[in-house]
Specification:
It is built from six helices and five strands. The chain is α+β, with helices and mostly antiparallel strands. It has two domains: 2-80; 88-259, Histidine kinase-like ATPase, C-terminal domain (Heat Shock Protein 90, 2-Layer Sandwich). A five-stranded mixed β-sheet has the order 1-2-3-5-4, with helices on one face. The two termini are 36 Å apart. Bound molecules: adenosine-5'-triphosphate and magnesium ion (MG).
């Protein structure tokens, strides 16, 4: 992995250190703005700026935690790894709130939460239905953001939708598109679906390669899906993709399948 190569030569600790300083500056000025807000007389403007500063603070905090994770990885210090599991639907709502300002009014962003609704054959052994994926909250945030931003970019300024959905599914002999593992049984499916351009079949095998991008220079690094794949696999999840270039099913659906947590 790229990260592994960079750890040994102090690049990650160095960048993390400088990045932390920049973040401290951004968050510091944001804090000052938060204090100034009370002087604003226009209530509508005040509410809007209040919301914006809240979003900056929360995105900044996530960046701080991401840097902490990179430092832990660079130190190879698994003992102190941060386990921060939070309700999946809460994290999705947070991502939606963060993404909305980055979308045009032509794009509809939906969350379809069916985790509470069992399929007849799902979880026949257990009476309790788990409603969350066992994954670090920061990782889940990053996964959904990467997939949703890709979905937005695939829309190319057209009218469309991005749908995030959660449900229980039963799989039989399906393959992970990224690692070819075979999946059988009960899973929690987190899907990010769009009605954008679709993925050209000749690209589909390469989209998880680091630095593979079809976006113009300066618009994509090609690291989003390789990072996403790593995070999904480290939570013991796998990935399936449905994608069509034409017709009524035109668009793409990334389906992430996570093991159903055992409830004691
Ligand atoms: N929802 C989607 N619809 C159509 N194509 C997609 C979609 N998601 C990914 N792709 C294709 O996969 C490629 C790789 O995606 P990836 O997220 O790894 O990199 P990127 O989006 O190009 O750049 P970035 O590093 O900014 O994420 C994209 O350039 C695009 O061609
Ligand atoms: Mg991307």
């Amino acid at each position: 992995m790229i990260l592994k190569g960079l750890c040994g030569c102090y690049i990650i600790p160095g960048i993390s250190h400088d990045f932390n300083n920049i973040l401290a500056c951004i968050l510091g000025y944001n804090e000052i703005n938060t204090e100034i807000i009370s002087d604003i007389k226009d209530d509508v403007l005040k509410a809007e700026i209040e919301n914006n500063t809240k979003q900056i603070a929360s995105a900044g905090q996530r960046a701080v935690m991401l840097i902490d994770k990179m430092m832990i990885y660079a130190r190879q210090d698994t003992q102190t790894d941060i386990i921060n599991v939070r309700p999946t639907s809460e994290i999705i709502e947070e991502v939606l709130e963060m993404l909305r300002p980055a979308l045009t009014s032509r794009l509809k962003l939906e969350f379809d939460n069916n985790l509470g609704l069992p399929l007849i054959s799902v979880l026949s052994k257990g009476s309790n239905l788990p409603t969350q994926i066992e994954i670090n909250a920061i990782d889940l945030h990053q996964i959904i953001t990467n997939l949703a931003i890709n979905a937005r970019d695939a829309m190319k300024n057209q009218i469309g939708f991005i749908r995030i959905s959660l449900r229980h599914v039963v799989m039989s002999e399906v393959h992970c598109i990224a690692c070819a593992a075979i999946m059988n049984g009960d899973f929690i499916e987190l899907a990010v679906t769009d009605n954008g351009t679709g993925i050209d079949p000749k690209h589909i095998r390469r989209i998880f390669d680091p630095f593979f991008t079809t976006k113009p220079v300066g618009e994509g690094t090609g690291l989003g899906l390789s990072t996403t794949m790593g995070l999904v696999h480290s939570a013991n999840g796998h990935i399936m993709i449905d994608s069509d270039l034409t017709g009524i099913s035109k668009g793409t659906s990334f389906k992430l399948l996570f093991p159903v947590p055992v409830i004691n």
